[in-house]
């Protein structure tokens, strides 16, 4: 069972990463994030070390929010064809299409926490940002359960998150994030991908989960 400190740091890190993969930061958010890099809650992995270094280089070369927004859109296909699709189904499905069986499996998993994709049936449920958010929410629910004195419920929430990582995130996100590093036009997006890979490694270490072949 994870202790409250572990749950809090995992929730904090995954919440930030989930947000930035879904929507790039504006100028104020970017400045605040850069000021807090030294306080990143999930250090200690190779991905975190690389990510923080690359993100600091983004500030050093004065990348602004407009540059990050353009790169985010180009990478994830907000305005055109994606350089790296942000959806699990594209990476794992035989037909490489969205809204396939993997999307529906992810939708079912979200229901275990009474969650659903914000644009249900209009955009795929299995976006990298939404999957990261599920992990964050599982940690937050476990924290709430511990606050209410229910260790059994807390363990159940942790297991839901770990199972989701094993069956979904861990099966496709590391490779996808590596492609983002290769395809990114900004240090910010490359650094974000490294940092996310490090967070996934931290989560796997903390929960003891191991992925099987996809």
From TrEMBL:
Keyword Signal included in the entry's annotation: no
SUPFAM superfamilies associated with the record: TorD-like (SSF89155)
Protein name according to UniProt: Molecular chaperone TorD family protein
Keywords: Chaperone
A Pfam cross-reference name: Nitrate_red_del
InterPro entries: DMSO/NO3_reduct_chaperone (IPR020945), TorD-like_sf (IPR036411), TorD/DmsD_chaperones (IPR050289)
Lineage: Bacteria, Bacillati, Actinomycetota, Actinomycetes, Micrococcales
